[in-house]
Design a protein that fits this description.
It is a single chain. This protein is of the alpha/beta class. 41% of the residues lie in helices and 16% in strands. The chain contains eight helices and six strands, in the order αβαβαβααβααβαβ. It has a six-stranded mixed sheet with strand order 3-2-1-4-5-6, sandwiched between helices. Helix 8 links the parallel strand 5 and strand 6. It is globular. About 4% of the residues have low confidence.
Length: 260
């Protein structure tokens, strides 16, 4: 009987030690999380590990087929985000300054897929993701294609302004810029509607110096919106212009998707 009591005490002791270790682990994880500076509006930590900016060109009409593709594409990009990575959505207008005011900009608060059920609640995390991140993004996208015509397309200027953002500077380990556009730069200073599109000629102009941007190690993706009335301009030569521009700015074009 004494041996049984001794064994029971040993088991109970192990249980107590295990419980204490579990509580310590939970408290340690909670403390580390609380110590991280957390923005309740954007769900971002002080240090953003990765930031994806999506720029939608609203300066010309986007047909229904292209709209469906864009919505699906953005949804796929959203689902690629890991915890605490940032997604920002902008629309290109004739005013480059206004084009750099995001219509959506938040960090992924977590989907619960990688949650540890020992001290986290995956279902609650997923509900938080849907309510505070996914649903607001979908609401914004519902209105993004309204009033999509303008007199100018300052693509260069908008890209330059992005490079000035603290949350999109070279200090951010991973930067991705996705441009959804026909890529037709059109301002008073320079336009793809006028003259020959040649990057070497362009790079020698004073205007090229004005729109220089710091895009070092940036990942560039282009959703190339094809337009019937631009058949004589759009194509491989036009895309080569942009490829050379991004290379000169220190970036790499890793994806081009043509959408008609």
């Amino acid at each position: 009987m004494k041996n049984l009591d001794k064994k029971n005490k040993t088991v109970i002791g192990y249980i107590i030690i295990g419980t204490c270790l579990l509580v310590f682990l939970v408290l340690t994880v909670s403390a580390l999380t609380l110590n991280e500076s957390y923005d309740p509006e954007t769900f971002c930590l002080d240090v953003v590990p990765a930031h994806t900016i999506i720029l939608i060109d609203k300066t010309d009409a986007i047909n229904t087929s292209q709209q469906h593709f864009i919505l699906d594409y953005i949804n796929r990009e959203k689902n690629k985000l890991k915890d605490h990575q940032k997604l920002s959505l902008f629309t290109l207008t004739k005013d480059a300054q206004m084009s750099t005011v995001p219509i959506f900009s938040k960090c992924n608060p977590g989907t619960g897929e990688d949650a540890n059920e020992l001290y986290q609640n995956p279902k609650m995390i997923r509900l938080k993701f849907d309510k505070l991140f996914s649903e607001p993004l979908l609401a914004v996208l519902g209105d993004v294609f309204s009033d999509n015509t303008d007199t100018q397309s300052p693509i260069f200027e908008t890209i330059r302004e992005f490079s000035y953002r603290d949350d999109f500077s070279s200090d951010v380990p991973q930067r991705t810029l996705i441009i959804i556009s026909d890529m037709m730069q059109h301002t008073a200073n320079y336009s793809h509607y006028r003259g020959r599109i040649n990057y070497n000629d362009f790079s020698k102009t004073a205007y090229a110096d004005e729109v220089t941007a710091n895009l070092d190690s940036m990942n560039i993706k282009i959703v190339y919106l094809l337009r019937d009335h631009l058949n004589n301009i759009q194509g491989s030569r036009h895309l080569l212009f942009w490829d050379k521009y991004f290379q000169a700015m220190g970036a790499d074009v890793t994806e081009v998707i043509k959408v008609r």
